[in-house]
Amino acid sequence: MEKSAEELYAGNDGLEDFPQTHTWTRALEFAKEKHKGQTRDEGTPYYEHINGTMEILIKEANTTEDEVLTVAALHDILEDTDCTYDELKENFGQRVADCVQLLTWDWKNGQTFEEYAKTIFENQDFKYARKIKLADRLHNLRSLPKTNNDEKIQRKIEETEKYIVIYDKQAPKILMDKIKAQLDTLKAMQNSKKNLDKQPTGTEHEEKEKLLL
Hints:
Layout lengths: L4 H5 L13 H12 L12 H14 L5 H8 L3 H4 L4 H8 L1 H9 L10 H9 L6 H16 L6 H14 L9 H26 L3 H11 L1
């Protein structure tokens, strides 16, 4: 379900003059238009991922900085829409455009996920990008069960442990802890499925009983 900036912010303190003077509310509308018509693997509108990432930052990580929330609203826009860097720069300024570009995985030109994660977590100009990346990944991990794709779930578990959790010391603890907890939940779910698959069917159980008689 699409949510307005007011709904995302509901119940949070710190932005008394919300929403008139904040760029992030305009960025949300911009992203909503750019991602219009896109859907995710779990079948939900793409914009719900933007909402989810923003909610994590605002309600779970107590994020109020306008620039951080602006970049968060736009974090997938260069990778997944026809929006260009120059268009971002014109509408939201160079700092926002540069940070969104930092958060854009350039897999089309051969950048590995390992290289991508390293550029974010070792970047010194936009340290807040780490927080956005963790919120983005946390929402993705929470959405994985809806895909019913065991291969993708396992791949994302391994990818997160190998290339994101290793930056434990450089990342905001509150979000990294939530990512670790979600990984534990997903692994337990995967193990449960494997155990169910190993259980003998009714016919197999009957054949085993005959052998034991």
